[in-house]
Design a protein that fits this description.
6 helices, single chain
């Protein structure tokens, strides 16, 4: 460490007090953003698509959700969520279902 002339740097902001910093955070709009994000949610597959998958599963000869899940290498929970319309659409899972069940599944956004 020879030849280094580093000196400590001290930052000061004389105009900032606790009162002004609190007002700054209350008035900068972050509260509105926080309340807005609480209302957002993901699109779900929907019950119509779920019924379509269930009918196609039965027509393809899969008696249980577990058989279909094993065939497409997904969990039974995933198949259950799709059939009840509570799943968030995943293009990979939907493509596996299309190929295995030989149906056209179209999820609108």
């Amino acid at each position: 460490m020879f030849g280094q002339d580093w000196q400590p740097v001290i930052l000061k902001n004389p105009g900032l007090t606790k009162k002004t910093s609190k007002q700054h955070f209350q008035n900068d709009g972050t509260h509105a953003i926080d309340s807005e994000t609480n209302e957002l949610s993901h699109n779900k597959v929907g019950i119509c698509i779920g019924k379509q998958i269930e009918r196609a599963r039965n027509a393809a000869g899969f008696k249980t959700r577990a058989e279909l899940a094993f065939r497409i290498n997904e969990s039974v929970k995933t198949i259950t969520e799709y059939e009840t319309g509570k799943a968030i659409p995943d293009s990979k899972v939907l493509q596996k279902l299309r190929n295995t069940l030989k149906v056209q599944i179209k999820v609108s956004k």
